[in-house]
Amino acid sequence: MDTQTWHCPKITTLLIRLWHHIIPHRRGQFGVLLILMVIASFAEILSIGAVIPFLAVLTAPERIYQLPVARPFILAAGMTNASQLLLPLTITFGIAAILSGAMRLLLLWASTRLSFATGADLSISIYRRTLYQPYSVHIARNSSEVINGISTKANSVIYSIILPLLTLFGSSIMLIALLIALLSVDPIITLAAFGGFGLIYACIIKLTKIRQLINSECIARESTRVIKSLQEGLGGIRDVLIDGSQGAYCQIYTNADHPLRKAQGNSTFISGSPRFGIEALGMMLIAVLAYAMAQQPNGISKAIPILGALALGAQRLLPVMQQAYGSWSAIQGGQVSLLDTLELLDQPLPNYVEQPSAKPLSFRQQISLNNLSFRYTEQTPLVLNNLSLSITKGSRIGFIGITGSGKSTLIDIIMGLLPPTSGTIEIDAQPLTTTNNRAWQAHIAHVPQTIFLADSTIEENIAFGVPKGKIDQGRVKQAARQAQIADIIESWPKKYHTSVGERGIRLSGGQRQRIGIARALYKQCDVIIFDEATSALDNETEQAVMQAIENLGKELTILIIAHRLTTLKNCTQIVELGDGGIKRTGTYHEIISG
Questions:
Q1: Residue 343 to residue 362: CA distance in whole angstroms
Q2: Residue 3 binned pLDDT confidence (cut-offs 50, 70, 90)
């Protein structure tokens, strides 16, 4: 990520964008949480207010009758002796303290639960929006950026944005409540203390703002590099072990992880460091106040209730101010990660997402490619240039050509994965558009050169994407027989419930390829595309598989990219691509004799 700190939008702008991605149900819960914060602040006032009469009755019981607020309650209770007040005030003070603690605990539980629930919503939304992006978007960016956004940066939004933001709101409400309570005890000292501490925190925020943004940028950038280095090192573990390049990959990981941890440590230090100085200043203020009040007549008896209330208030006030500052600092530190997360959340969803599954587009005659041209970006040359081709339904079309001739690109365009730069694709004279693209893809099953296998059973990999409880086991076995792998599977102890391991590591290359072919056949589509899908098979197995496919029925349209010309022996037409277009077409015999 190349975002510079001075280009990063204001945090308020980012938070407004984040709010738009929070579902209405969660917004209602945030409203309830805000009410809970207000209630907790009143409980805090009650606990501080209860300490004054409690300490007063302990030090100078007769003074409690002089309190205007207390007199009506004392007279209503019929208490004539000051000592009678001790027990009820002790109980009241204890209840107030317990109530305050319980409310703060409830607030912490609700804030934490809501923060993580919202984080889950955002993470799921990123994953969902990413899966629905066009193929051109996926091939243009590194998967480590997306994985990091879904996992690390979505978590960062919880810990650096949502939780701190809720803490900041709660702390602000609590500060106002504490300020009101302490103003009733001693307005001058309260305003001096609050103003002094507030000014110190404001200066610290001003001084550390740029550093926190730099840390934020570093965390966002290096966390992506960490994921990328892990993917590359572990993804190519066979080559790493053979080449002995563990040291190089460890260094790549170190170069990313060390700056990341350093930036995280700096952010944590900046968030927590002011607390110790502020607490020391607070204790000095109370000591100075105690000394000043002790010099007055009857100063000790007057001072103890006020000092007790101020000490209790300070005990609450200073941590709350530190929480507010720490939360703001954490939000600053997570600002760039929030920006990256929002960019993933802002990915548009296609119109068909909320619609029922598309019914297959009518395909009875032919696929027509008319003056088709394609380039990946405006800066790159044309891969295909003004290409025209007709593919009749039920035909077997083979594609050959040197590497880079555009075979796979042409297949991706036919499958509706890449939109042509110019020209059109027509299915039975109906142009293929974004509106009917999903309806066309319902016809297609694809077998790539490299088969992706999930770490699950043979059965689940053949019926890939179908919930386990909805798998048609009869279709699974039929597809396996057609792909010439049923005999091998049924010789294993667990048969179709055999686990294939991560990326099919427990299977041979040929077995993985035949599982991929069985997967395509399970879909029972009428257009099957093989992108060098038989390259890992030996000649005998390849011919058996191709013969089985040939016998599937004349209504099945098959498009094959092959590196061996003999694979295309049964094709009705072979198309040779080169120089951005079609060099020649013909039958197998015409091509080998030409």
A1: 38
A2: very low
Region 492-510: mean pLDDT is 79
pTM for the full model? 0.71
Task: Give the whole-angstrom CA distance, residue 578 versus residue 401.
Answer: 6
Structural domain includes residue 354: no
Q: How far apart are the first and last CA of the chain?
A: 52
Does a structural domain hold residue 356? Answer: no
Separate counts of helices (H) and strands (E) for the chain: 22, 10
Residue 85 makes CB contacts below 8 A (sequence gap 6+) with 53, 57, 61, 64, 74, 79
Q: Where is the domain boundary, 345, 378, 397?
A: 345
Query: 385 lies in which domain range?
Result: 366-593
Domain identity same for 269 and 418 = no
Residues 6+ apart with CB under 8 A from 371: 386, 387, 388, 422, 423, 424
CATH number at residue 472: 3.40.50.300
Q: How far apart are CA 513 and CA 484, in angstroms?
A: 11
Residues 261 and 200 both lie in one domain = yes
How far from the centroid of its chain's Cα atoms is residue 173's Cα? 31
> What are φ and ψ of residue 485, in 5° steps?
-130, 0
What 3 state SS string does 305-371 have?
HHHHHHHHHHHHHHHHHHHHHHHHHHHHHCHHHHHHHHHHHCCCCCHHHHCCCCCCCCCCCEEEEEE
What tokens were used for 9? 């939008």
| Spatial contact of 438 and 352, defined as CB atoms under 8 Å apart | yes
Kindly state whether residues 111 and 171 are assigned to the same domain. yes
Q: Taking residues 509-533, report their average pLDDT.
A: 83
Other beta carbons within 10 angstroms of residue 100's beta carbon come to 21
> Can you tell me the distance from the alpha carbon of 335 to that of 165, in angstroms, rounded to the nearest whole number?
12
Both 284 and 392 in a single domain? no
Q: Indicate whether 353 belongs to any domain.
A: no
Residues 219 and 143 in one domain: yes
pLDDT tens-digit readout, 570-592: 788 888 888 888 888 888 888 88
Do 61 and 119 share a structural domain? yes
Mean pLDDT, rounded, of the chain = 77
Beta carbons within 8 Å of 71's beta carbon, 6+ residues apart: 65
Q: Which residues contact 363 (CB under 8 A, 6 or more apart)?
A: 393, 427, 428, 440, 443, 526, 527
Amino acid at 571: C
Q: CATH number of the domain at 227, please.
A: 1.20.1560.10
Give me the number of domains the chain comprises.
2
